Amino acid sequence: MLFLTAAVAVTAQNMMDVNTKKMGARVQPTMYGIFFEDINYAADGGLYGELVKNRSFEFPQHLMGWQTFGRVEVRNDGPFERCPHYVVLSAPDHHDRRTGLVNEGYFGIGVKQGEQYRFSVWAKALQGNSAICVQLIDEHSMAERQELVEQQIEITAADWVKYTVTLTAPVTLKTAKLRIFLTNPQTSTITPQPSVALEHISLFPVNTYKNRENGMRRDLAQALENLHPGIFRFPGGCIVEGTDLQTRYQWKNSVGPVENRPLNQNRWEHTFEHRYYPDYFQSYGLGFFEFFQLSEDIGAEPLPIVSVGLACQFQNWDKEGAHVPVDGLQPYIDDCLDLIEFANGPVTSKWGRVRADMGHPAPFNMKYIGVGNEQWGAFYYERLKPFVAAIRAKYPNIRIVGSSGPMPDDTPDDTYKFAEGWKAMKELKADLVDEHYYRDEDWFLSNGLRYDSYDRKGPKVFAGEYACHGKGKKWNHYEAAILEAAFMTSFERNADIVYMTSPAPLFAHVDGWQWRPDQIWYDQTQVFKTVSYYVQQMYATNAGTNVLQLTMDKKPVANLAGQNGLFASAAFDAKTDEVIVKVANTSCTAQPVSIRLNGMKGEHTATTMTLSHKGMDDENSIQQPELITPQCGTLKCGTDREVTLLADNLPAMSFRIYRIGRGK
Q1: One of 374, 465, 484, 619 is an active-site residue; which one?
Q2: Exposure of 226 by Cβ count < 10 A (0-12 exposed, 13-18 middle, 19+ buried)?
């Protein structure tokens, strides 16, 4: 007790007060969410479990990703209307030669020892029975043989049939390849025999997330589930707009049988010359059905974004004819309404039947839809208006998310008018406004009161894309994550106006990224979570149900004068009867902190979760995936004039969460 009294005397300058009795605004279940953009090989080569690149030979260079040998021919009259290309393997002109092909995967095919992999192919025999030998190989092996494992498939049907075999990897390898030989079905030797046609050549881990055949990579999907997100925004982002209208994301192309989903060019293939990947396309294997299903699996509300008829404004601002004229928007509006029917309609409806045929008769119960990604100006407002009218007329309970543009404030040259965007969204009666901010350390440190003065009568806030980009340090370092944690106290403190948030981007392949910082990084077999990921997880798992007022000298704790770089917020969790206090110390020195829990008496024990690290530029990596992670602990709370008092010493540049049960 003497120790606590001394601590109170020392920490008077950092004394915070929490009113634990008066419940404030409800913290929305959607408050902390995730945003998926197919950038950095986030879908094909990432979350989507497919290991074969260009599996249907639909890339503009039809054999990109494949090495061929012997007699291999590409044809375009295949069984799938929107993916017509396939290959024919024919016997070479000498019995000692071979015919076949090798797929390189996405920076290599990653396999894990003891894991099973499902190989499938649509095939037909062209001149009597034939066979193929399917192998996983290590081209760089010093062992006697290249093949790690192989299986024979006899092709007997003269019509297209799907064949499947399972391969079990004997070793773990990041850079395996898939090799297919034309073989002899009688002798099972690699002696070429009659021609065979192959289409949609696929290789999936059997152990996908939820064990689905067209499933997600388990470790990456599990990382999403472990975030406990309340909202899942998809499929982007700038890919919703496309570089031009022809390459925009079209959800109807992403549903139905996976073999018949057409290829789409990914606008991130060519956006950055210094990070150029000519083989970056969208197979649509991870499509809208899979997005909705994943939302359901991880317990998040789905928030799909649809095109408003504008191609990317950054790239097409002054281009004549780049955008859909207002009087030509009806097909885009129909796509939007049809999407709501796909998600929520009965099985007797056209698009509800498509959903049911894909394996989900029950509605997905979608509640939100975003129209347009990051648009701004009259171009956007005049196109959004008829969408809002059509959605309100047919689906009045759907909540509409509009955009305030790509910047969090007005720019000096008036190119981006943030205030004008908000004014337009109010006039159009959008339910939420999507704000984006990729800003440096100073911005995050100086915007702790950003939402305190927002109009409470208008639309609610969706902070749909944000990240702290360090000056000259645009990566996933520790300092940036701590400043994000500090800024996020303003979300919670203003939960009456801030309903949704999601940092961005989400995924990045270590060998194929275009943009950083990102939340989750991976290679072919491993994954690591960044410090920013852990910040999000800490908030989402300690959100609480209601805001509690927390002040220092009767002011919010948001790095104001005399607050010594501190940011703080408090909430009550009705499910556990606990008070939750979050405090970030953004100063370069340790800070003594005292928190008076007014309305509580007696001594209590707080559980704590802390992010603390000395190297500001340090980050997690494939080599050190858990270099910086939250650490759990406990702290005894004493009393100050019968009021429960929490006294602590926060390390420099740290973030700590306290949970204190109100009962004894």
Answers
A1: 374
A2: middle
